[in-house]
Design goal:
It is a single chain. 28% of the residues lie in helices and 25% in strands. The protein is an alpha+beta fold. The protein has 2 domains: 168 residues, D-amino Acid Aminotransferase, Chain A, domain 1; 144 residues, D-amino Acid Aminotransferase, Chain A, domain 2 (Alpha-Beta Barrel), CATH 3.20.10. Helix 6 links the parallel strand 7 and strand 8. The longest helix is centred in the first third of the chain and has 17 residues. It is globular and about 55 Å long. It starts with 9 loop residues before the first strand and ends with a strand. The chain binds pyridoxal-5'-phosphate. Pyridoxal-5'-phosphate binds next to helix 7 and strand 13.
Amino acid sequence: MAFALNTYPVTYRAKYSDGKWADEYLEKPHKTPEDEAAMGDEDRAKLENSRNYYDDMPLVNYTTQYGLACFEGLKALPQKNGGLAVFRPDRNAARFYSSMEGLYMPPFPEEMFISSCLETVKRNAALGFKPVYNSDWEKDSYISADSVYIRPFTISESGIGVNLSHEPYVMVINTPVSAYFSSGNSDAVVTERIRATPSGTGWIKACSNYAISALAKSEAFKAGYMECIFLDAVHRKYIEEGSSCNIFFYLKSGELVTPELGDTILPGITRASIIELARDRGVKTTERRVSIDEALEETKECFVSGTAAGATPLTSITYQGRKVIFNDSQTGEFTREIRDTIKGIQYGKLPDTKNWMVQVI
Ligand SMILES: *Cc1c(COP(=O)(O)O)cnc(C)c1O
């Protein structure tokens, strides 16, 4: 599976108490990567489970009971010239900080966020747990490429009454990933469900937002679509996001549009990077409201963006039973260029003129 849990041995744990953060790196049970690969399924599953269990952490807490938590996702990517580099960790650090503030938790210092992300990758690589660059990936523009997914997240302290988390844990785990969207088609459907409401938590990378996304995505999947699209809660008319990705429309007029940020849209780092790259290319790029009618009428190419998705084309959108196909169901030229540019920078094939990459090893 493309995104299976297969945690690398070294994890990070910080805990806030008495007004400060105390932290540690944990080395969970492991063999060499080669020996692990040679293990039988049952033994391997046991070993992987042992890495994912922490018997000194509270089971009953505001996260497991009420979904009070937030998380981040970023990648360390194998570089064409060797080693591993992380894409824009400072941006994830800043977003994690504001997510925690948004949930009224003591925010995790940005420099601790960055160092724990880089250090887990470095320590796992030192044990041999790291993907290695493969030039075959260049042939499909890194769609099949491997990377390390870094997942920082919060867990609350013990508690059962509805409450805020004043003394959270911050954990960082690493797990290997390959291609995110693996199903055969690239069709999307507009869901009736509402992901985020004004004055809610849509702008926070909050775990609780994901219940609705997961329901809507599974409904879309069962109906034969790869992705679902959310409309706004008030007008039921303006496009907001994909299931857990931002969305872009390259219009027939040559304008690139993406829904403007607000309290119902997650400020994606891939989104911000694509806006910058498109403007550099001289493409008129606008953050504004996009109605579903405009999108269906005027779109030449459509794609969703996110750390896991990269820039993934949507070849059609179905709304109220009407399916509109874009660009003869082919990945469009603009989408391809954007995807190739961002992937090229991330994997060190193109020069990192923006200083987005932080070399780890
Ligand atoms: C994480 C996320 C994104 C994408 O953000 P990136 O920083 O580009 O990975 C988009 N939408 C939602 C709802 C998300 O949780």
